[in-house]
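thought: fold this chain, then report.
action: predict
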Amino acid sequence: MRFRTILSLATLFVFCFTAAVWSLPTPAQTAAHSSNAAENQSVAGKISAVGDATFALQVAKDNQPQTMQFLIDDKTRVEGKLAIGSQAVVEYRADSAGNVAVHVVVTPSSGLHY
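observation:
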Protein backbone atom coordinates (compact mmCIF):
# COMPACT_ATOMS: atom_id res chain seq x y z
CA MET A 1 0.00 0.00 0.00
CA ARG A 2 2.76 2.45 0.92
CA PHE A 3 4.62 1.64 -2.32
CA ARG A 4 1.51 2.48 -4.41
CA THR A 5 1.13 5.83 -2.65
CA ILE A 6 4.76 6.76 -3.26
CA LEU A 7 4.56 5.66 -6.89
CA SER A 8 1.33 7.62 -7.42
CA LEU A 9 2.78 10.79 -5.88
CA ALA A 10 5.96 10.46 -7.94
CA THR A 11 3.91 10.05 -11.13
CA LEU A 12 1.78 13.08 -10.24
CA PHE A 13 4.92 15.15 -9.56
CA VAL A 14 6.47 14.19 -12.90
CA PHE A 15 3.24 15.00 -14.73
CA CYS A 16 2.92 18.44 -13.09
CA PHE A 17 6.59 19.25 -13.74
CA THR A 18 6.27 18.23 -17.40
CA ALA A 19 3.12 20.33 -17.88
CA ALA A 20 4.79 23.35 -16.28
CA VAL A 21 7.86 23.08 -18.51
CA TRP A 22 5.79 22.71 -21.68
CA SER A 23 3.72 25.79 -20.83
CA LEU A 24 6.77 28.10 -20.78
CA PRO A 25 7.53 30.00 -24.02
CA THR A 26 10.78 29.12 -25.72
CA PRO A 27 13.49 31.82 -25.90
CA ALA A 28 13.06 32.00 -29.69
CA GLN A 29 9.34 32.78 -29.33
CA THR A 30 10.02 35.42 -26.71
CA ALA A 31 12.66 37.12 -28.87
CA ALA A 32 10.43 37.05 -31.96
CA HIS A 33 7.52 38.71 -30.16
CA SER A 34 9.65 41.44 -28.59
CA SER A 35 11.57 42.25 -31.78
CA ASN A 36 8.40 42.58 -33.91
CA ALA A 37 6.79 44.90 -31.41
CA ALA A 38 9.91 47.03 -31.12
CA GLU A 39 10.35 47.43 -34.89
CA ASN A 40 6.85 48.60 -35.83
CA GLN A 41 6.02 52.30 -35.60
CA SER A 42 2.82 54.20 -36.22
CA VAL A 43 1.97 57.54 -37.81
CA ALA A 44 -1.22 59.34 -38.88
CA GLY A 45 -1.84 61.96 -41.54
CA LYS A 46 -3.38 62.81 -44.91
CA ILE A 47 -2.65 60.78 -48.04
CA SER A 48 -0.92 63.07 -50.56
CA ALA A 49 -0.02 60.60 -53.35
CA VAL A 50 -0.90 57.04 -54.37
CA GLY A 51 1.11 54.81 -56.72
CA ASP A 52 1.02 51.17 -57.77
CA ALA A 53 2.85 49.82 -54.72
CA THR A 54 3.54 53.05 -52.83
CA PHE A 55 1.77 55.95 -51.22
CA ALA A 56 2.77 59.18 -49.49
CA LEU A 57 1.41 60.51 -46.23
CA GLN A 58 1.53 64.17 -45.18
CA VAL A 59 2.25 64.27 -41.43
CA ALA A 60 2.97 67.04 -38.95
CA LYS A 61 6.23 66.53 -37.11
CA ASP A 62 7.24 69.24 -34.61
CA ASN A 63 4.49 71.43 -36.12
CA GLN A 64 6.19 71.20 -39.53
CA PRO A 65 4.55 69.38 -42.45
CA GLN A 66 6.55 66.40 -43.65
CA THR A 67 5.90 63.82 -46.37
CA MET A 68 6.61 60.18 -45.63
CA GLN A 69 6.79 57.52 -48.37
CA PHE A 70 5.51 53.98 -47.73
CA LEU A 71 5.87 50.76 -49.69
CA ILE A 72 3.04 48.24 -49.96
CA ASP A 73 3.94 44.54 -50.14
CA ASP A 74 1.89 41.34 -50.22
CA LYS A 75 1.77 41.24 -46.40
CA THR A 76 0.34 44.77 -46.02
CA ARG A 77 -3.22 44.87 -44.66
CA VAL A 78 -5.22 47.83 -45.99
CA GLU A 79 -8.59 48.73 -44.48
CA GLY A 80 -10.41 51.16 -46.76
CA LYS A 81 -9.34 52.61 -50.10
CA LEU A 82 -6.10 54.55 -50.54
CA ALA A 83 -7.24 57.88 -52.01
CA ILE A 84 -5.62 61.30 -52.09
CA GLY A 85 -7.05 63.53 -49.37
CA SER A 86 -8.16 60.70 -47.11
CA GLN A 87 -6.90 60.43 -43.55
CA ALA A 88 -4.89 57.31 -42.70
CA VAL A 89 -3.18 55.65 -39.77
CA VAL A 90 -0.15 53.61 -40.85
CA GLU A 91 1.69 50.99 -38.84
CA TYR A 92 5.03 50.45 -40.55
CA ARG A 93 8.49 48.98 -40.19
CA ALA A 94 11.75 50.50 -41.35
CA ASP A 95 13.45 48.24 -43.90
CA SER A 96 16.51 48.55 -46.12
CA ALA A 97 14.14 49.40 -49.00
CA GLY A 98 12.36 52.12 -46.98
CA ASN A 99 9.24 52.33 -44.84
CA VAL A 100 7.14 49.21 -45.44
CA ALA A 101 3.48 49.55 -44.45
CA VAL A 102 2.29 46.68 -42.25
CA HIS A 103 -1.28 47.85 -41.56
CA VAL A 104 -3.11 50.85 -43.03
CA VAL A 105 -6.48 52.13 -41.82
CA VAL A 106 -7.99 54.70 -44.20
CA THR A 107 -10.79 57.09 -43.27
CA PRO A 108 -12.34 58.60 -46.39
CA SER A 109 -12.49 62.38 -46.70
CA SER A 110 -16.00 63.63 -46.02
CA GLY A 111 -16.24 66.11 -48.89
CA LEU A 112 -18.44 68.31 -46.68
CA HIS A 113 -17.00 71.70 -45.84
CA TYR A 114 -18.72 74.06 -43.42
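thought: worth noting. The first helix runs from residue 2 to 23.
final: C-alpha coordinates above.
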